[in-house]
TrEMBL record:
GO terms classed as biological process: DNA recombination; DNA repair; SOS response
CDD domains referenced in this protein's UniProt entry, alphabetically: ABC_RecN (cd03241)
Name of this chain's protein: DNA repair protein RecN
InterPro entries, sorted: DNA_recomb/repair_RecN, P-loop_NTPase, RecF/RecN/SMC_N
A GO CC annotation given for this chain: bacterial nucleoid
Signal peptide (UniProt feature, chain positions): none
Tagged with keyword Zinc-finger: no
Matches recorded under PANTHER family: DNA REPAIR PROTEIN RECN
Role played: May be involved in recombinational repair of damaged DNA.
Keywords per UniProt: ATP-binding, Coiled coil, DNA damage, DNA repair, Nucleotide-binding
Family note: Belongs to the RecN family.
Gene3D superfamilies from the UniProt entry: P-loop containing nucleotide triphosphate hydrolases
Residue intervals passing through the bilayer: none
Length: 550
């Protein structure tokens, strides 16, 4: 509930604090005294856009602060979602600087207007005359019937299942699109894969084939050179190995005459042994190098095939071709997995759809069971508030499965017993809508915990017994909810638990708006003035006293 409203430097309010009661709060005052200014200030902490022109003193900032007592479960989800600290109470503050910059705070933490509006919607329900957008919304109409049906847990379970159902449908649609796109390419991918599989290339094969082709293509040149090397190393008239052996032996004879010669002799011996090994390997290699025309033809044919594949796939080596082959295989395998997943999703969706249809049917039955009692109660309340010929009818039509069932719910209205029912938004006047909203909210309030309810002149256009009945409904509504009502009707003011009087006062050269909580006697006088004018008669005073004490 809103237990304190603080206003500084707003319109013609320099400084104002109002402490509200937990039940029915009534605000009265002369036309133009500033009642609407109070609501204007309140709307700022409810997330409305700020207008710098409202500053009372253009050199100072404007501050509007609302202090609320809340039940933790009422706002906990919001505070957790927005990573805000939840304390015993909630303080919403809005500041407008002299330069026109607006800032908003929740428990001293800066927030944006979206967050402010979301939280204020959990705390305050502001209903102004002709402000009937909420009543016209299909979501609100459904929420009314659901509140009366009392199937909150069942509806939550259905909603969770429907979200799962929607998620699976979205996934199915995306997979089907992937499959349709993949189908256009799958035949070509299969052709490419088959071609690579038929080639059966091994890792590094192209590079090995090219090396072998080079060797066979130059076999005669290689063999001639190797023969010459073998001959010069071992078989010439003066073979290189023999000369080196003789040179090493000559050097060895000098070993005793110089300290560095033994080391040189050892190195020459090592060179001799190394060259001897080289001669043996050259001879062995020479024996293995043979020209093979048939093998060369085979190599050329396979390399031509491999090079064609390399060029086709823009690859540079066998490894890249094999990677492309693996990727094609994975894509085709993915197609098979995609079909399996689509089939699985279709089965799951069918099962879930059947469950949703059964749950939605049960929800529909519970809603329809509440329609007739709801219509009867609202129609009785409409007669009570001075609309004896008005009727409401709830139309429930079956639609597709959606987040809250499969029902399309619309409130229809007939103001003149003509059995000419039409959508509320088209056939009801502003005054009718205001009273209709009051009747509906008074019924819903018995089933759910509504936030603080604020009514701005909801009783405009009625008087006498109808006004008294509105007061009775307001009083009943305030037994379980905080209600703030701006009114010109003495019958409603007489039902107040707390009566606030708004008035203007000239201070210096400026007019200021003030709000005062009236005592019992002051209430009687104020209500008497509402009944008979500025100078109330004895009868008006007596009538006012009776209204207050009833």
């Amino acid at each position: 509930m809103l237990f304190r409203l603080v206003i500084q430097n707003y319109a013609i309010i320099e400084q104002l604090e109002v402490d509200f009661s937990a039940n029915l709060n009534v605000i009265t005052g002369e036309t133009g005294a500033g009642k609407s200014i109070l609501l204007g200030a309140l709307s700022l902490i409810l997330g409305e856009r700020a207008d710098p022109s409202v500053l009372f003193d253009k050199t100072r900032k404007c501050v509007i602060e609302g202090q609320f007592k809340v039940k933790r479960e009422q706002v906990q989800a919001f505070f957790e979602a927005n990573e805000l600290d939840l304390e015993e109470g909630v303080i919403i503050r809005r500041e407008i600087s002299a330069a026109g910059k607006s800032r908003a705070f929740i428990n001293d933490t800066p927030v944006n207007l979206g967050q402010l509006s979301e939280l204020s919607g959990l705390l305050v329900d502001l209903h102004q005359q002709f402000d009937t957008l909420e009543l016209e919304k299909s979501d609100f109409q459904r929420q009314v019937i659901d509140a009366l049906a009392g199937h909150h847990d069942q509806l939550q379970l259905y909603t969770r299942q429907f979200r799962d159902y929607s998620r699976l449908q979205k996934e199915l649609k995306e997979l089907e699109q992937q499959r349709d796109h993949a189908n256009k390419e799958s035949d070509y991918h299969k052709f490419l894969l088959d071609e690579l599989l038929e080639a059966a290339l091994q890792d590094g094969e192209v590079e090995a084939l090219e090396a072998e082709q080079q060797m066979l293509s130059h076999a005669e040149e290689i063999k001639g050179t190797l023969n010459r090397i073998c001959f010069q190393l071992s078989e010439d008239e003066q073979p290189v190995l023999q000369q080196l052996r003789q040179l090493q032996a000559s050097l060895q004879t000098l070993a005793a005459y110089h300290k560095d010669i033994p080391a040189l002799s050892e190195r020459m011996q090592s060179s001799y042994l190394e060259l001897q090994d080289i001669a043996a390997e050259v001879e062995q290699l020479n024996d293995h190098v043979q020209f093979d025309g048939e093998r060369l033809e085979q190599l050329t044919e396979r390399l031509n095939m491999a090079n064609r594949l390399l060029k086709k796939h823009n690859a540079h080596n066998t490894g890249e071709l094999l990677a492309i082959q693996a990727d094609l295989d994975q894509k085709l395998q993915g197609m098979l997995n995609l079909d399996d997943r689509i089939l699985e999703l279709q089965k799951n969706i069918a099962v879930l759809q059947q469950q949703l249809e059964q749950a939605a049917s049960a929800i529909t039955r519970e809603r329809k069971a509440k329609v007739e009692p709801f219509e009867q109660k609202v129609n009785a309340l409409l007669a009570q508030v001075g609309m004896p010929n008005a009727r409401i009818k709830v139309d429930i039509q079956q639609g597709p499965l959606q987040l809250y069932g499969q029902d399309v719910i619309e409130f229809l209205f007939d103001a003149n017993k003509g059995n000419q029912f039409g959508p509320i938004r088209k056939v009801a006047s502003g005054g009718e809508l205001s009273r209709l909203m009051l009747c509906i909210k008074s019924l819903v309030a018995r089933s759910v915990a509504l936030p603080t309810l604020i009514f701005d002149e909801i009783d405009t256009g009625i008087s006498g017994e109808a006004a008294r009945q509105v007061g009775i409904i307001m009083k009943e509504l305030a037994r379980g909810h905080q209600v703030v009502c701006i009114t010109h009707q003495p019958q409603l003011a007489g039902k107040a638990d707390a009566h606030y009087f708004v008035y203007k006062q000239l201070e210096g050269e400026k007019v200021h708006t003030h709000v005062r909580l009236l005592t019992q006697e002051e209430r009687i006088t104020a209500i008497a003035k509402m009944l008979s004018g500025e100078k109330p008669t004895a009868a008006a005073l007596e009538n006012a006293r009776e209204m207050v004490t009833q």
